[in-house]
Amino acid sequence: MLTTREKLWTAMRGLKRFTVPELAHAAGVDSIRYNLRDYILGLVRAEILGVERPAGRPGECSVYVLSRDLGVDAPRVRRDGSMPRESAQSRMWKSMKILRVFSVRDLVVHAALPDAPIAPGAALRYCQWLARGGYLTPLPREKGDVARYRFIRDTGAKAPQILSVKQLLDANTGKIMAGQSMQEALDESEASA
Q: Is the whole model's pTM more than 0.85, yes or no?
């Protein structure tokens, strides 16, 4: 399952030269519900897209050109053209795939950046969700040992995400791998209101 941003990027790579309405049509994205212009503006400011012909008269569309194809992964850009750092979950996913067997502390050390540390509690929570989803298996431990996990399921480059409805989504397959049913999420939401 592709995100809207990924659909747009795939269409941009295919079209190479486009207007906003052409892009929306090619990507199958509702340009009213999703603000394409902010994403395009960020890509222009990051010099990933160029403006071949700016809109002149009212009702005329600017023509954009893909000037730097960064590959299949859709670039994440802010409106000002800056690129946010990779998420903690993404960094942990990559580290797990390299380490294969690790403790939460190992994961925190390997996935943290100097200016973007990862809290041990967040790493533990992510490991627990991935274990529930069948990506990790907890290893047996002896008294006094730290909990360790073995990486057992690699479905691709994108890190599985913990959704706000307490579900684990594998972005590679588009499947929910573990978590609450929609009914449970609705019931919990209603109970806390």
A: no
